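Batch manifest, entry 17 of 40.
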Amino acid sequence: QVQLVESGGGLVQPGGSLRLSCAASGFTFINYAMRWYRQAPGKERKLVAAITTRGSSTTYADSLKGRFTISRDDAKNTVYLEMNSLKLDDTAVYYCSARFAQITYWGQGTQVTVSS
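Output type: structure tokens
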């Protein structure tokens, strides 16, 4: 069974940091580009970061460059999102996604709340 399981979300104060993890199983992880999306209440889902197979290239939303870092560990079938200098508007449900050709898988998301 295909699974993408996010973890690491929670409550954090402005300026703080979190590292999200997404553990993949049930498919050939090394063949898939990985992405993180987020969706704030009342807003559409938005791409946060993407990483190619083998981690050879990364892409970020312009507003997040320098604060967020995506990485992957193919030996562990896991993709990470390191988030630093968190702001109130980073509050959202963060989703992990795997993509290969016309195939896309989604995790169920993990809540990140930035609040003082």
